Each structure stands twice: as C-alpha cells, then as structure tokens.
TrEMBL record:
UniProt KW keywords: Hydrolase, Protease
Listed name of the protein: Ufm1-specific protease 1
Stored InterPro entries: UFSP1/2_DUB_cat (IPR012462)
A Gene Ontology biological process term: proteolysis
Keyword GTP-binding: no
Organism: Vicugna pacos (Alpaca)
Pfam families linked to this entry: Peptidase_C78
GO terms assigned for molecular function: peptidase activity
Residue stretches making up the UFSP1/2/DUB catalytic domain: 5-128
Annotated family: Belongs to the peptidase C78 family.
Top-level taxon in the UniProt lineage: Eukaryota
C-alpha cells in the first residue's frame, strides 16, 4: 500500500488493527470499523455493541492491544444474567487444515473465555469490527 518503509515488506514485523482496517479498505475486503478502548477494564462496556455486531451478521473482530500483545479475533459474545459475559476467542496464529471444530478447541486455537479474564485491564485495545457493508449492519452498530 506504500504506507510502510521499504524494509517492511518481507520482514517479520506485525501490523495492528488500524493497519488491518486500512488493508481491508485498500484491497476491497469487508469494511473494518475501528473502536478504540483506552483500558481493557472498559471492554465490559463494549460487550453490548459487540453482541449487536454479531447478532446483525457482523464478521470476526480483530483485537490488538499494547500491554496485552497477544492478538486475538473475536467470533462471538454470550451475555448472561447480571454481569456474566463470555467471548469466543480465536487465536489468529492458527494455520493448517484441521479435521473438525473439536480439534481447534482441543489444540487451544478457539474457545469461550470469561470476558473479564480475556483482556488485560491495564492495556488499551483497538477493535476492528468487520462488516459486509450492509445497511442493516450499520444500524446494529449505531
């Protein structure tokens, strides 16, 4: 895209959610809507938005942080009674062909995690909510 120095191409450097969103736009992929959360403790306040995102047909949510350098992708949200909430987390480093979803779970690549334990309360997070650009999806996020 021309936004990185020449030595970046072919390197093992990582990009974050902001760059991933720019790439989706540049290469004509699904729209990536960014949401910045200043502290992981504030992510609990974003769970309703994330739930609406998935309920409206939204795609995976890329998650990147600073103190929490373990990148994640969210595939779903389960809101329980009171403040109980879970997120379905996929490790984006997963690669290769697996025979079935239970293999992904057994290998630790995907699983439900309690929302309060899945994020570092002191880290900021950038979320990239992917959409198929439908009008219905935009209304679900507003």
């Amino acid at each position: 895209m021309g936004d990185k120095p020449p030595g970046f191409r072919g390197s093992r450097s990582w990009i974050g959610c902001v760059e991933a969103s720019l790439c989706l736009d540049y290469f004509g992929g699904p729209q990536g809507r960014l949401c910045h959360v200043p502290r992981g403790a504030g992510l609990h306040g974003e769970l309703e938005r994330l739930y609406s995102h998935f309920a409206g047909g939204g795609g995976p949510v890329m998650v990147g942080g600073d103190a929490d350098a373990q990148s994640k992708a969210l595939l779903g949200v389960c809101l329980g009674p009171g403040t109980e909430a879970y997120v379905l987390v996929l490790d984006p480093h997963c690669w290769g062909a697996l025979n079935n979803p239970s293999e992904l779970q057994a290998a630790g690549w995907v699983g439900w995690q309690e929302a309060s334990m899945a994020f570092d309360p002191n880290s900021f997070y950038n979320l990239c909510l992917t959409t198929c650009n439908s009008e219905k999806q935009q209304h679900a996020l507003d």
